[in-house]
Fold:
Amino acid sequence: MSGLLRTMRLAWLEAWTNRRGFWTQVTVMLVNDVVWVGFWVIFFRQVGEIRGWDTDQVLVLLAVLTTGAGISLGFLHNVRRLGTMIGNGELDSALALPVPTLAHLLVRRVDPIHIGDMAFGIVLFFGFCNPTPQRVGVFLAGTVTAAAICTGFLVIMGALSFFVGRSEAGDLGFHALLLTSSYPVDIFAGATKVLLYTAVPAGFMTAAPTRLVDEFDPLLAAATVAVALLVVAIGVVVFNRGLRRYTSGAVWTSA
Structure:
């Protein structure tokens, strides 16, 4: 554990070395998020409520999404690069260390641009989402489950490169999860909605925590936590199983 904590500290210091670049990336993402939120606010003010979703609920959903995804992609940035590193045979240096390979890879990089996402989500919730003590507690728990689901799902998609020898699955999984998570899940219907609660767990990543913030339901909360734990567990199992098939590319990098 001390080795992983030291790796996290070094990753943060590495990102913080170029402070001007750090704050530039954070600012760019903040502006991007403001534009995205502005789009949804204008949209719902024009059309009103859609299948139970209104402006207030969408703001909570976007706060959960940006905070949860910001934690996952900002502090565990390599989760998005796993497929590429596996496909290119770049895991050699990580395999030589006396720490769990997956854990080391995840904490090795920090991405400032997604730190901006996390900061934006926190400001959005506390500034515009009626932050009562109960809602704050549920929101914080919801962002943790969202980060866990995002991380676990991307690990699964990236680890598929062990078996198929290609890295495209990781990128496809990233875009599928993030895009579908940013929409109110109830605007979808039929097989698509089922897909968003199963193969691509976007519904449990953002829609379920949003519902819980507005009206807490113990059964839905338990299901959301269970899904987060299941996705993480599957990600760990798939990665470790795939690691037995790893073929070195003789590329000695710091991951």
In short: Residues 19-47 form the longest helix (29 residues). Residues 2-243 form one domain. The chain has one domain: 2-243.
